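Deliverable D2.4 — example input (structure tokens):
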């Protein structure tokens, strides 16, 4: 290190807690990189004055309108010279992860070497942006760093008012809860809309996220404009042996208290063997010589609780598919919103199914591009124009499954009931016929 380390009493405090601190990592990099010494200087100043000192600007690479987040320092002396010159430019390259998000250790080492050569050495993998964030590079090195990554097949991600890089959970690659091929869904939607990522022309950002089951490990429902969540429509699968192992280990009391009583819709019962319900729609596991656990699948809302508590003993059904929600996002204009269901269930297995998903995604993106105001996310647009208008705009029928709280909402409109029922039946019959 050529540069003398700067005193950082406030940042140092962040290292005193029980968890590993990012400050320790930054200090380690600062031993070799003057840029990181000055970055710590600017950060410490921010902690002292409680102000941010980065401003944007225009930095890019040939052929792209986005993907680089420019950061220039505003901490300057009376002669307009930066107080921390080595970190005066600290841009970020957003780079899309490989399909499926698996890496070899060689590839990871190579990425670190590239970033050591051109940038600060600081990399963040797959945050909520979904990108590999190569953080800290001067303007003059940006093109060369991108070229080297690009020659190895890596592409820039999204930034600004554009389609953003997607996230999917690890899903089918490793997780027994997975209900569809998350990686394929992600790549289908993103690869077909890359133009909207690389040439920002939308009213504001737009995110697709994909979770393989309702556990929603990537927070798709809260954090994406269109969330695709795996689910199933038949019965929860039972592995009786594993249920019994669980009960043997934890006891029946815990089964009652932690599983049965926790079901939000009271769909699970403990019943004596001779009183088990007959017919379709029930999943049954004998828990010991006397009693059975019985799940009434018609009342199950796929909350995942019982499946999570008894790993392997209970698993998603066999008739799998996805639920699609739109309009989730962080704060901004109307506060945080969760996604609203627009497709209660669709299969996602055949080429045609994936094409249908692709078309829906494109329709929603187009509708957003044409109807949202500047700086307005999908959720806010829907809030402003109304869900019914949005559904009409993208050509979807209203469906009773879209009611947010079917079991607790006391407001039921019965005017025109018979006509609506007739229309509903007609639509159902037409769907069945066609
Ligand atoms: C197999 C299970 C899980 C997987 C694969 C998973 C995966 C992830 C991923 C990829 C992120 C984003 C990380 C980032 O932004 O850098 C995340 C964030 C998060 N996860 Fe999980 N997660 C799992 C289970 C859980 C559980 C059980 C909880 C809570 C009890 C949880 C709570 C959170 C929270 C609070 C965040 C931070 C969200 C934010 O950025 O604000 N996760 N998880
Ligand atoms: S969302 Fe479901 S399928 Fe995906 S990793 Fe989480 S638990 Fe597994
Ligand atoms: S997954 Fe279904 S049966 Fe299990 S706890 Fe949730 S609602 Fe109840």
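Example output (designed residues):
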């Amino acid at each position: 290190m050529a540069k003398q380390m700067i005193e950082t009493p406030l940042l140092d405090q962040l290292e005193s807690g029980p968890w590993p601190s990012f400050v320790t990592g930054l200090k380690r990099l600062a031993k070799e990189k003057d840029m990181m010494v000055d970055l710590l200087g600017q950060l410490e100043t921010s902690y002292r004055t409680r102000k941010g000192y980065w401003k944007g600007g225009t930095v890019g690479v040939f052929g792209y309108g986005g993907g680089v987040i420019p950061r220039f320092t505003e901490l300057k002396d009376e002669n307009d010279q930066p107080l921390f010159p080595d970190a005066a430019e600290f841009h970020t390259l957003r780079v899309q992860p490989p399909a499926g998000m698996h890496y070899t250790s060689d590839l990871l080492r190579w990425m670190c070497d590239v970033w050591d050569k051109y940038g600060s050495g600081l990399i963040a993998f797959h945050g909520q942006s979904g990108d590999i964030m190569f953080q800290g590079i001067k303007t003059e090195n940006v093109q060369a760093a991108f070229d080297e990554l690009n020659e190895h097949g890596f592409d820039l991600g999204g930034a600004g008012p554009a389609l953003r890089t997607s996230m999917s959970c690890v899903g089918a690659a490793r997780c027994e809860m997975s209900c569809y091929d998350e990686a394929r869904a992600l790549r289908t939607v993103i690869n077909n809309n890359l133009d909207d990522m690389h040439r920002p022309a939308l009213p504001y950002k737009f995110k697709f996220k994909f979770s393989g089951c309702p556990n929603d490990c990537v927070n798709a429902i809260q954090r994406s404009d269109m969330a695709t969540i795996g689910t199933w429509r038949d019965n929860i699968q039972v592995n009786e042996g594993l249920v019994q192992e669980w009960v043997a280990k934890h006891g029946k009391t815990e089964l009652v208290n932690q599983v049965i009583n926790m079901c939000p819709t009271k769909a699970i019962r403990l019943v004596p063997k001779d009183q088990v319900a007959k017919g379709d729609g029930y999943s049954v596991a004998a828990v010991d010589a006397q009693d059975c656990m019985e799940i009434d699948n018609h009342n199950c809302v796929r909350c995942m609780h019982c499946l999570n508590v008894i790993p392997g003993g209970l698993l998603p059904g066999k008739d799998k598919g996805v639920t699609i929600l739109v309009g989730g996002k962080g704060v901004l204009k109307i506060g945080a919103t969760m996604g609203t269901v627009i497709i209660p269930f669709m299969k996602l297995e055949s080429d045609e199914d994936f094409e249908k998903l692709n078309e829906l995604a494109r329709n929603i993106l187009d509708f957003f591009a044409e109807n949202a105001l500047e700086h307005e996310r999908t959720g806010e647009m829907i809030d402003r124009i109304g869900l019914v208008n949005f559904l009409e705009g993208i050509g979807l029928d209203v469906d009773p499954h879209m009611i947010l709280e079917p079991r607790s909402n006391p407001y039921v409109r019965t005017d025109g009931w018979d006509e609506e029922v007739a229309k509903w039946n007609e639509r159902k019959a037409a769907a069945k016929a066609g």
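The two ends are 71 Å apart (CA to CA).
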